[in-house]
Amino acid sequence: MIKNRLKILRAERNWTQAALAKKVGISRQAVISIEKYKYTPSLELAFDIALAFNVPITDVFQKSEV
Fold first, then answer.
1. Where in the sequence is the signal peptide annotated (predicted)?
2. Pick the CATH number of 2-53 from 1.10.10.60, 1.10.260.40, 3.40.50.460, 3.30.479.30
3. Largest Cα–Cα distance of the chain, in whole Å?
4. Between the CA atoms of 64, 1, 10 and 56, what dihedral angle is there, to the nearest 10 degrees?
């Protein structure tokens, strides 16, 4: 499983799910699905999300042992 910190990073920046979705060119529903671990983003999308937050990809996504 790939864990993510989307919700935390969004909260730190006061971004809505819709704002993040617009920044990376996906739907708000896609952001919700990623945050709830119902969808694992492609590598390209993961890099786009990290770029939107201006952090390394490993600050957003990490592999879990679960």
1. none
2. 1.10.260.40
3. 31
4. 60
